[in-house]
Amino acid sequence: VAHVHCEEVFGILGENYTFPVKINKKLVEIIWMKNRDKVAEWEEQSQAVYFTSLKNRGSLNNETGSLTIFNLEKNDTATYVLEYLPFDENNLRLTFILTVLDPPSEPTISCNVSDDSLVLTCAADFKGPLTYTWDFGSITDYKQQQQNIVFLKKNVDASEKVMCFIEVSQTAKSSEFSLTECFP
């Protein structure tokens, strides 16, 4: 019975991407397919061979079985299947559905004034999950609702500046916001 593993993963255009393969067995043969085309192959006692789109952009780790694609392109979006043969066992397969996303936009910070607080929202145009962090300078009185939404007391010093940082994979971007923009 073949072990079925299917995982949706994403990479960022222009970055390097390594498939999250965790095999803790001695491997004797590795084949990576993209859709139905072979893109990388390795057998014990030989060098890895790369085909088609990965000829100069692929790197196979014959100990873990993982494949790295350098400088991701839009047409790397595909279904990848890793077929591997552990020592003394039958063929096993892992399937990864890779989507290559555009990098996130620069974040923008908007401010809404409610009864007793300023509500700051940090947003970036991106189709996947982002990690948000904030820098409030010398402001200590704030409440974080979600990663991208923060409440400040209304009596905060309007000359303060706030920074929002977004991060995904190897890409990080930030923007600065002056609290004077909250007070028309």
From TrEMBL:
CDD domains: IgV_CD2_like_N. Its main location: membrane. SUPFAM superfamilies: Immunoglobulin. This is LFA3 protein. InterPro entries: CD2/SLAM_rcpt, Ig-like_dom_sf, Ig-like_fold. It comes from Crypturellus undulatus. The gene is Cd58. Signal peptide: none annotated. It is found in: Membrane. GO terms for cellular component: membrane.
